[in-house]
Structure prediction request, 558 residues.
Amino acid sequence: MRGKTAHGEATPMQTPTPLEQLLDLAADLLGHDRRTLPARASGSPFMTLGGGLGQAMRLQALAGERLELSLDIPQLLGPVPLSDVLARAVAVPQGAAVPRGAAPDAAGSGPRELLPGQLAALTAQQYTGAAAVHRMLSAELTGPLDLGALRTALDALSTRHEGLRTAFGPSPRGPVRRVLDAYALPLVVMAKVTAGPGEDPVAAAHARLVVDVERLAGHPERPPLAFALTRLAADRHLLTFLYHEAAVDCWSVSLVWRELLADYARAVGSRPLDRSGRRGSDAVARRAEGLDRSGALRALAAQRIKRLRDFPAVVELTGSGRRPAVFDFRGDRVLFGLGPALREAVDATAARAGVPHAVVLLSAWALTAGRRSGHERLLVGTEMPRRPTAELMGTVAPCSATVPVCCELEGGVDYFLRGVACEFGEALGYADLDTAALARELGVHGDRSRPSLTQVAFAACDELLPETLEAGPLTSRFHHGHLGGTTADATLRVLRWGADPLLSLEFASGVFSRAEAAELAGELRGCVEALTGADGQEPVEDLPGSAGGARTPAMPMG
Prediction:
């Protein structure tokens, strides 16, 4: 390639270096000017440039797909300047991914050992039923729907991802997984939903699926997932993905929806679909085995335990004495919004402190829980990925974990927010550790009435999928449903951001009543208002508000 000098003379244009190409990808992803980001990235970490977990994962995926470079997500979300982190990118090892068009090289139906985390989800189902360990995410499809094209897209998706063809069953040595050679993902066409006066038809459709989940996605010896299609109105349908936590995690769900909608657009346009098989779940198993054999997990655990000893193992948010003898994973949720003004205040505070909006919300949640429990230091379990390679980024498998993040309620507001951001990045480096094993090492065991270490949890679901996506002639808008399960006493989920923020306070039914959960959501809103209304130097302990339900309960939306 050639360019021109100021005098119009032709000059050769230099090929961009890997660092320059990575900076361009980061600029496009974060919405920065390609010309100015390099200077800012030389002195600013990824998170202070507006990057969160979802953006870090997408940058990692793009680096692997387009440049065959591997990035370290914990480093991306740490305190090191972005340019320095990108300069450390390494080439993806040859053979790390199955090339397009390749077929799996082993028979699919033989038993395989479970992947990390699958046994816990399967065991929970034995005691609670399918609904408590299944989740659902729906796309409200507006426009003319081609049912044949949808089935074609589902078939291609199943062919590509063995995680969607994985069934679980017993064996003499315990539960095992079996990858089926072929499997048609169930697409169940439901009767048209009839909503009552003033009732949201999407909520009505979700309520019906709560009752039907066992029938739709609970067949033994079959993959524990299904798609349900509900007609809402003319040219308006709700497509719901029901999935088991042992088969699919939060990142996998976003991957499924992105690929499914892209495949649908190709199918309605009579374009070819990718049906190449991928063996990503075996990569998950190999990575877990390698970490175990190398001793890396033992070294990480020793480091992490030193830090966690300074934090309470129990964060009690209610004094009602209603806690059951055994935590039963059954739950409900309260939906609530923040409104445009408070959303703008959160974004402005995030920009001032140099952190993503999710960190402001995580910090407000930690402040709420700390005031309720009386702790100035506490652990908040946060959903994090175990996907350090480009191959795993494209894999449908349960590669996420709820990792305890150390939150210290001290210093000025901006200092507090940046501290939580740094602790989030540090915790990501320990995502491969088993939280229950850490609890045992810390001497916390034998209490079956509560989750180990992470009774309070947080998830930024909005970072993984946009509010809407296009699929040929269709427009899709996503809705997070709830099937009646939970893994913590109280979990704050950011379901939607942007013009109309939507949050969910998911709570254990045996610990909170719905009214108590709404009250807790009101306290959270008060802490968000306090954090965003304060000067950056104002001490956190001087912020207005108090524990114990002094705030007005949030008005639930459903």
User: Anything to note?
Assistant: The chain has 17 helices and 19 strands.
